[in-house]
Amino acid sequence: MNLSNIIIIFLCIVSVGFTQNTNITGTFTFKKRNPGVALLYFDQDKGLKVSNANLDQMNKAFVKPLLVVNPGSEVKFKNSDAVDHNIYASDKKQKVNFDVGLITTGGDTNYKVEWDKGKVVKLRCKIHPKMKSYIASIESEFHKVVPFEKREKELTFEMSSVPENLDSLVIWMPKYKELHVNLKPGESKTFELTRKGKVKGFLSLKRSVAIDEK
Amino acid sequence: MLKFLSLILFLSIGSIVYSEPLSTPDVEDIEYPDDEEPSSELITLGKTLFFDHRLSKNKNQSCATCHNPNLGFGEGVAHGFGTMGGKLERNTPHIYNLAWATTFFWDGRSSTLEEQAVGPIEANGEMAMPMPKFLERLRNIKGYKSLIKKAFGDEKIDKERVTSAIAAFERTIIVDNTPFDRYMAGDLSAMTPKAIEGMNLFKGKALCIQCHDGANFTDDSFHNLGIDDKDLGRGKIVKDKTLNGAFKTPGLRNVLMTAPYMHNGQEGTLEDVIKFYNKGGGSGPNKDKLMVPLNLTDQEIFSLVAFLGSLNQKLEIFPPKLPKE
């Protein structure tokens, strides 16, 4: 091994050891109704390890608007409500269909997520059609679920300690066109949020330059 | 002793079913398709289609025949009749405040108003017009061309346009200014003392709010009241025996206008309905565990009826002039 190779290997080790992190600040703005929830994640990132995923039901609602799991994860659906529930999905487009049947008060049931990564599937209850939640099957440890309050037209959120080498961001919202954007440290960008070809809002993202957290 | 009392408290709280507070519906909460409010031209087209009896097989029945605005957008009898003269299998549900609804038909087989609009048009027992024939009939009525052009910019007639227009009109049938709403807005004289007493029973002892909750007095859910008429209701749609005999909770705005009641129209008056609940519902199989005897006195039933009367608002919706052939 010559000296130049040794230097390259040394620099690689040093650079890996000193990978720096960044913070992202984002602001959603909607013209009318918000979509209820948004999910942002880096599709280059494979670091997510979800071992125990739970989704409970309370007060005739799912307690989380969106649950993030790994492909292959086991999800425990719980019912802490005073009424019986049922959980099912019927997504023809993504070819995900399942029905766990009745979950009585205090009961639970397990379900294995066997969909491909990148799919976000809507959950419903056959007894309470108002209820909805989503399960996202992704691999990204660096993700952010953004829940919106009813009638909220503007919301600012933060993603902290995102490694600087991740720059390919996916933005998913129900019924909206999925966005695949590139955001490098130090950049600020604004994206249109569209639904059936019409602009319904905007997302402004600002990423800090790398911060040495060591 | 303390542990025992804690257990009793826990058990009693644990059995309380969450209910949304009673309130006035807000148009800001309506989820229009694609978030777009319909134009007045689309609503006019929808209203015309809704009232046009020529669009049924025998040219004698429109949506408004069963959803009669003079009969609380119901039909006033337990079972109405279809265009071919046959009796309908269920009581016609009213269509007040469906703009906020998430499930349609007694059994919830449609999840949008647009999808729902197709059902009665095509059903053999109702208007008996398969969509291609319906569209052909529509194309032969020349007067519709200008209505459609005003609504969509061109004269093309298709299923999507027709159903979006009917649904757009139906979303305008709104009851949100009743004595109850005025009372909630601060006018304490808007409801009589008897009605206020009834409201408190509705939210308390009578347990009505466990299913008839929120701004539209419905949980949009499905319950089996113990009515034993062999109709499987929701169970047949979702192929789940646990929901056999369960039907959608109807909203109660303008309920005074919508007699008779229940999915089979078996109860003629609101007093009858409350007496049915007072005895814990019917004796049919698979009854919802929320159905329990209420021990309401006749005076309390009287108060509950007074409260339900405070959910009334006169809507004047007149049939439009139908387009010429």
Walk me through the structure.
The complex is a heterodimer of chains A (214) and B (325). Chain A is globular. Chain A has a four-stranded antiparallel β-sheet with strand order 14-1-18-17, with no helix packed on it. In chain A, strands 13-2-15-16 form a four-stranded antiparallel β-sheet, with no helix packed on it. Chain A is mainly beta and 214 residues long. The longest helix of chain A is centred in the first third of the chain and has 15 residues, at 3-17. Chain A folds into two domains: 20-47 and 141-214, Immunoglobulin-like, CATH 2.60.40; 49-139, Sandwich (Immunoglobulin-like), CATH 2.60.40.420. Residues 10-16 of chain A have low confidence and may be disordered. Chain A has one helix at residues 3-17, and strands at 21-30, 37-42, 53-55, 57-58, 61-62, 66-69, 74-78, 85-91, 96-103, 108-112, 119-124, 132-137, 143-147, 154-163, 168-172, 179-182, 188-195, 198-207. Chain B has two domains: 27-170, Cytochrome c-like domain (Cytochrome Bc1 Complex, Chain D, domain 2, Orthogonal Bundle), CATH 1.10.760; 176-309, Orthogonal Bundle (Cytochrome Bc1 Complex, Chain D, domain 2), CATH 1.10.760. Chain B starts with a helix and ends in a 16-residue tail after the last helix. The chains are: A mainly beta (214), B mainly alpha (325). The interface between A and B is medium-sized, with 23 and 26 residues.
List the keywords.
heterodimer, A: about 210 residues, mainly beta, Immunoglobulin-like, four-stranded antiparallel sheet, 18 strands, globular, B: about 325 residues, mainly alpha, Cytochrome Bc1 Complex, Chain D, domain 2, 2 domains, 2 strands, about 35% helix, disordered N terminus
Under the CATH scheme, which class of the largest domain in chain B? Mainly Alpha
Q: Calculate the mean pLDDT score of chain B and round it.
A: 94
CATH H level, superfamily name of the largest domain in chain B: Cytochrome c-like domain
CATH topology of the largest domain in chain A: Immunoglobulin-like
Q: What's the end-to-end separation of chain B, in Å?
A: 81 Å
Strand/helix succession of chain B:
HHHHHHHHHEHEHH
Our count of helices of chain A gives 1
- What about the largest sheet of chain A? 4 strands, antiparallel
Helix content of chain B: 25-40%
Shape of chain A: globular
- Per DSSP E runs of 2 or more residues, the count of β-strands of chain A stands at 18
- How far from one another are the termini of chain A? 31 Å
Measured by residues with Cβ under 8 Å of the partner chain's Cβ, the largest interface is: A-B, 23 and 26 residues
